[in-house]
């Protein structure tokens, strides 16, 4: 079960939760989330504004939220920093323009290999087959991305959110 917990932490982008509604400042570039992810590699460590819909806020601390774009194909974790003290659960479903620094976290190929072994071991436990099949599919997707991008790591993009504005 410990391995499943480790993988679950990975699935929510490896960071924990820990406060306020703030106004977004003007940024050099504004992107819908889907468009930002298409150019994210070139925007890492830059200040950008991203527009998306809040799907989740951390209940315990409010220190992070997750947003999706119009396609809902991908999500972005936003950490509360700068003028943002917390993300209220009342924001769920809201469209936000969030200004902050785009960051990346790299999962090494070795780490992904270790995860795969752990998931395969969990697959032997009763009742875990469906969960493990889904996790193995995620690992397969990570490997495909690495091959398509000629990388020996998988990238997870996230944002250090500095300010935000509710758009609806």
Structural features, described:
The protein is α/β, with parallel strands linked by helices and 168 residues long. The protein has a domain of 101 residues: Nucleic acid-binding proteins (OB fold (Dihydrolipoamide Acetyltransferase, E2P), Beta Barrel). It is 33% helix and 32% strand. It contains 4 helices and 6 strands. The protein has a 5-stranded mixed beta barrel with strand order 2-3-4-6-5. The N and C termini lie far apart (41 Å). The N terminus is likely disordered.
Tally of helical runs: 4
CATH class of the domain at 18-104 and 153-166: Mainly Beta
Task: Bin the helical content.
Answer: 25-40%
Radius of gyration: 17 Å
What coarse outline follows from CA principal-axis ratios?
globular
Short description:
With 168 residues, this protein is of the alpha/beta class.
List the main descriptive attributes of the protein structure presented here:
disordered N terminus; alpha/beta; 33% helix; OB fold (Dihydrolipoamide Acetyltransferase, E2P); five-stranded mixed β-barrel; 32% strand; 168 residues; 4 helices
